[in-house]
Design a protein that fits this description.
Distance between the termini: 39 Å
Low-confidence stretches: none
CATH class of one domain: Alpha Beta
CATH architecture of one domain: 2-Layer Sandwich
Number of helices: 2
Helix content: 10-25%
Order of helices and strands: EHEEHE
Strand order of the largest sheet: 1-4
Largest sheet: 2 strands, antiparallel
Shape: globular
Structural class: alpha+beta
Length: 91
């Protein structure tokens, strides 16, 4: 079992950005990160299939690029600290 993000393979799940394809407009749930619970394990960043979890510098808390996040929930599922919850998008 992986203990930290450093134990994972050295690349993210995907290496292609969806920068030219804004996909966040059809999301029904959005990930919300509680920075107080976040332990900066970066599993959310490592497993995001759309590169929508952003870490500016090591040691920073991750944030979400909502323009490209599809709301798949993989980040919340991989978060061992329970720092990410999926909230319904407002109608």
């Amino acid at each position: 079992m992986y203990e930290t993000y450093r134990d994972l393979p050295p690349i993210q799940v995907t290496t292609q950005s969806t920068e030219d394809m804004p996909t966040g407009t059809w999301r029904t749930f959005r990930p919300v990160i509680d920075e107080e619970k976040c332990n900066n394990c970066y599993f959310c960043w490592k497993f995001c299939p759309d590169l929508s979890i952003v870490v500016r510098e090591e040691g920073d808390h991750p944030s979400v690029d909502y323009v490209h996040c599809k709301g798949c929930g993989i980040c919340a599922n991989e978060c061992r600290a329970g720092a990410i919850v999926m909230e319904r998008e407002p109608l």
